[in-house]
Design goal:
Strand content of chain A: 15-25%
Order of helices and strands of chain A: EEHHEHEHEHEEEHHH
Structural class of chain B: alpha/beta
Largest sheet of chain A: 4 strands, antiparallel
Radius of gyration of chain A: 19 Å
CATH superfamily of the largest domain in chain A: Aconitase, domain 4
Distance between the termini of chain B: 51 Å
Radius of gyration of chain B: 21 Å
Low-confidence stretches of chain B: none
CATH class of the largest domain in chain B: Alpha Beta
Mean pLDDT of chain A: 96
Number of strands of chain B: 19
Largest sheet of chain B: 5 strands, parallel
Largest interface: A-B, 58 and 83 residues
CATH topology of the largest domain in chain A: Aconitase, domain 4
Oligomer: heterodimer
Mean pLDDT of chain B: 97
CATH superfamily of the largest domain in chain B: Aconitase, domain 3
CATH class of the largest domain in chain A: Alpha Beta
Low-confidence stretches of chain A: none
Strand content of chain B: 15-25%
Shape of chain B: globular
Number of helices of chain A: 8
Number of strands of chain A: 8
């Protein structure tokens, strides 16, 4: 997994509330058995007309926000389905960080696994960052310090220390967990005595 | 210290404490379907890892399967490839696998309970957010992403942060004409789609106790629409009765011990919840969603709300967009909304009781002429078989409904079952998101009885006087 430590970039404003994972990537595009190639379909209803042509001035394709790596989003971002295709699609568009008032739990968890930092900030801070994004200002997100800086503005954010370690070190989580093999095996011995019906003889 | 049911199941499954509420949690049960698993199996192969415990897994295709003409070749090559990948992975890794032509095939969240695979006190995961369904049995069940699927396959654990405890108590008695779906929508309407974020919801109170297992599944299913990754109902005699004798349930000799163990799961007297919500169940009425979020819900007797009735500026903006998408006007009575298509199915409402509830409404009447199609999609082959044994299929077919093969179908429109642009759908599914049932499709979430009534009337009607 790609590490995330500190990022300075322009941002794309998309402050709509309750953006669900069907908006991020519609179900009809989940038939691929690969992890890549979802970006072209990301935010499809926001980016394309019914005939497949690009919607002019949409924030994801217009020249204004080209090269931005931060998405400024609305409250409850990523609600709905557990599809990890959503963060895959967002990463495919070039985003490494999403800032919003709140995130749905499963989506936020899926982002960590894909090297995407989700930053929850109060609504007024997000509103200010939307304006900064629209003005083309650079935003700096520093995970080590857990701060977002933009011009003179400075915001601190909470972040789960376990996830911080994973992102900052770009850890292989399964490899890490497998170092706890003995503890897992001890657990199974214990559970097998209490609930033997959960184990095939 | 008194513990909640969630505390108990969590504590029981901790393999390693990791501080700040983080722990490595043991996972007992894993349901696998074709859409979110191929990349996980591929990851295992690429890293040369194996599956830790194959006896913890059932694999079954559901999202992408056709619901008719199954004897014909699937015309969609990508669907075919995805279904073939599940088949190949299940065989390669030696999983318990229910293929499409097996009578037990169906939606994972119908199949798990039906097979007795879902049990009280277990941790159960699936790469699908509606895994919350299984909480109806007092299982800690939640949806996971594909990286987590791979993690569970390889290690039988997940690194998780413990959620907060929330209790939703539904008091009184549910009025005639209302069902578990209305209870779920009423709760979401009250607390919003982010109301349960970072919480596990325990449902309690007389209305919950009075619900059948099917009803409890409907309710827990939509916990995710309230933002909660998991919902829970305390197991009771109904739970034990439902499970007894099912293929994966504890066998004679272990059954008594299992029931004893399950009885100890309920929240202790005096257990503290971080958040408590009380809803008067006697006040619940049949509900219909009008917007593009499940929290956009009103009684069937009401009208589409005014934009100005929402205090939050961002929500006002969202409502404006939603009304535009839905082709509805502020103040328009819900019963004036003409319905074009009806879908009765999904992991929310495709069980035998749901089909009986829909069938009861028909009373010899026919689907209205303006309905393009009214589709019944049973949740599993066994539900379908049971319904046919009760003659429900004939009742539906005579009334002009279609009777399909089991699968997720038009809940998410991955397969050919979809609604056209601009069509209003009375749907028993769980999400009314933009484009969820097809590009431009306008979904209204309702109970099975309300959907059947809408099919006959051609518009929404109050099923209490129908």
């Amino acid at each position: 997994m790609e590490k995330f430590t500190k990022l300075t970039a322009t941002a794309t404003p998309f402050p709509r509330v309750n953006v669900d994972t069907d908006i991020i990537i519609p179900a009809k595009h989940l038939k691929s058995i690969k992890r890549s190639g979802f970006g072209v379909h990301a935010f499809e209803t926001v980016r394309y007309n019914a005939d497949g042509s690009l919607i002019e001035d949409n924030v994801f394709d217009g020249p204004k926000y080209k090269g931005s790596k931060i998405l400024i989003a609305g409250d409850n971002f990523g609600c709905g389905s557990s599809r990890e295709h959503a963060p895959w699609a967002i990463a495919d568009l070039g985003f490494r960080c999403i800032i919003a008032p709140s995130f749905a739990d499963i989506f936020a968890g899926n982002c960590v696994k894909n090297g995407i930092l989700t930053v929850a900030l109060p609504q007024d801070a997000v509103d200010a960052l939307v304006l900064a994004a629209e003005a083309g200002h650079q935003i700096t997100v520093d995970l080590a310090d857990q701060t977002v800086m933009c011009g003179n503005a400075h915001y601190e954010f909470d972040y789960n220390p376990a996830h911080k370690k994973m992102l900052m070190e770009g850890l292989d989580e399964i490899g890490q967990t497998l170092t706890s093999k003995a503890a897992i095996s001890t657990y199974e011995h214990k559970e097998k005595l209490i609930m033997p019906w959960l184990y095939r003889a | 210290m008194p513990k909640t049911m969630y505390d108990k199941i969590w504590d029981m499954h901790v393999v390693e404490e990791r501080g700040n509420g983080n722990a490595l949690l043991y996972i007992d049960r894993h349901l696998v379907h074709e859409v979110t698993s191929p990349q996980a199996f591929e990851g295992l192969r690429a890293s040369g890892r194996t599956i830790h415990r194959t006896d913890s897994i059932i694999a079954v295709p559901d999202h992408n399967v056709p619901t008719k003409d199954r004897d014909q070749p699937n015309p969609d090559p990508m669907s075919t490839a995805q279904l073939a990948a599940l088949d190949a992975n299940a065989k390669e890794f030696g999983l318990d696998y229910i293929p499409m032509d097996d009578v037990r095939q169906g939606i994972v969240h119908v199949v798990g309970p039906e097979q007795g695979f879902t049990q009280p006190g277990v941790t159960l995961v699936c790469g699908d957010s509606h895994t919350s369904t299984h909480g109806a049995f007092g299982a800690l069940a939640f949806g996971i992403g594909t990286s987590e699927i791979e993690h569970v396959l390889a290690t039988q654990t997940l690194a998780l942060k413990k959620s907060r405890n929330m209790r939703v108590t539904v008091t009184g008695e549910l009025p005639v004409g209302c069902s578990a779906k209305d209870v779920a929508l009423a709760i979401i309407g009250a607390i919003g789609t982010a109301g349960g974020t970072a919480h596990v919801i325990e449902y309690a109170g007389p209305v919950i106790e009075s619900l059948s297992m099917e009803g409890r599944m409907t309710l827990c299913n939509m916990s995710i629409e309230a933002g909660a990754r998991a919902g829970l109902v305390a197991p009771d005699e109904k739970t034990f009765e439902y499970l007894k004798g099912r293929p994966y349930a504890p066998k004679a000799g272990q059954w008594e011990a299992a029931v004893e163990c399950w009885k100890a799961l309920r929240s202790d007297e005096g257990a503290v919840f971080d958040r408590e919500v009380v809803i008067d169940g006697s006040e619940i009425v049949p509900l219909v969603t009008w917007g593009t979020s499940p929290e956009d819900v009103v009684p069937v007797t009401a009208s589409v709300p005014a934009i100005s009735s929402f205090a939050d500026r961002n929500k006002q903006e969202a409502v404006k967009k939603a009304l535009d998408y839905m082709g509805l006007a502020e103040g328009q009575p819900i019963t004036d909304i003409q319905v074009d298509r009806v879908f009765i199915g999904s992991c929310t409402n495709s069980r035998i009781e749901d089909l009986r509830e829909a069938a009861n409404v028909i009373k010899g009447r026919k689907v209205a002429d303006n309905i393009i199609a009214a589709m019944i999609v049973p949740g599993s082959g066994l539900v379908k078989e049971q319904a046919e044994a009760e003659g429900l299929d004939k009742l539906f077919l005579d009334a002009g409904f279609e009777w399909r093969e089991p699968g997720c179908s038009m809940c998410l429109a991955m397969n050919p079952d979809k609604a056209g642009p601009g069509e209003h759908v009375a749907s028993t599914s769980n999400r009314n998101f933009v484009g969820r049932q097809g590009p431009g499709a306008r979904t209204h979430l309702v109970s099975p009885a309300m959907a059947a009534a809408a099919a006959i009337a051609g518009h929404f009607v109050d099923v209490r006087n129908f």
